[in-house]
């Protein structure tokens, strides 16, 4: 019954092979208006492939038969899952989990930036990029980041080509705030 009342946003996260069968667990949760999470469903999958995600999402869609489809799905950047969402729930908006993206970016760039002081400056700059509320502000903040850290080989290319150019519509508030997600941008 909760699902019927709160079926506007679904959060999906895959826990990778932490059980004794070495299978990934795809967990699908929903959230109430009081910000309480509840389990919608889960699926053990042998590998994070497009086909396995499609099968799991088709099972979810069959459960929702006759109900409205979710307006928003929030996931990490698992390419098989992203493609499966586009196939199974094409009318739903898809957002990327800002926490997961931030963690991946920070883990990768800490090695590139080096010292703690430089890394702290980078974190401030990256956070300002990640939370830009307009396209012009995003460009300005990316330019600031490039000016300060452009000397680090591959640094701005990584950020621009792996994250900002490809996923800004799923990650940056300038675009995501055009979708009613009630502030739910993390899984």
TrEMBL record:
Pfam families reported in the protein's UniProt record: MULE (PF10551)
Per UniProt, residues of the MULE transposase domain are: 10-103
The record, for InterPro entries, names: MULE_transposase_dom (IPR018289), Zinc_finger_SWIM (IPR052579)
- Superkingdom field: Eukaryota
What is this protein identified as?
MULE transposase domain-containing protein
Signal sequence span is none
């Amino acid at each position: 019954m909760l699902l019927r009342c709160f079926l506007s946003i679904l959060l999906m996260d895959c826990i990778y092979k932490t059980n004794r069968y070495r299978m990934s667990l795809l967990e699908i949760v929903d959230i109430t208006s009081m910000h309480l999470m509840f389990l919608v469903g889960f699926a053990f999958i042998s590998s994070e492939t497009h086909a396995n995600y499609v099968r799991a999402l088709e099972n979810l869609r069959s459960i929702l038969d006759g109900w409205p489809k979710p307006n928003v799905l929030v996931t990490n950047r698992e390419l098989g899952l992203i493609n499966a969402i586009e196939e199974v729930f094409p009318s739903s908006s898809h957002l990327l989990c800002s926490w997961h993206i931030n963690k991946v970016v920070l883990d990768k760039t800490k090695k590139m930036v080096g010292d703690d002081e430089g890394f702290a400056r980078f974190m401030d700059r990256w956070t300002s990029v990640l939370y830009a509320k307009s396209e012009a502000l995003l460009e300005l903040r990316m330019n600031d980041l490039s000016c300060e850290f452009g000397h680090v080989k591959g640094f701005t290319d990584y950020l621009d080509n792996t994250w900002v150019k490809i996923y800004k519509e799923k990650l940056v508030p300038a675009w995501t705030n055009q979708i009613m997600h009630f502030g739910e941008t993390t899984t």
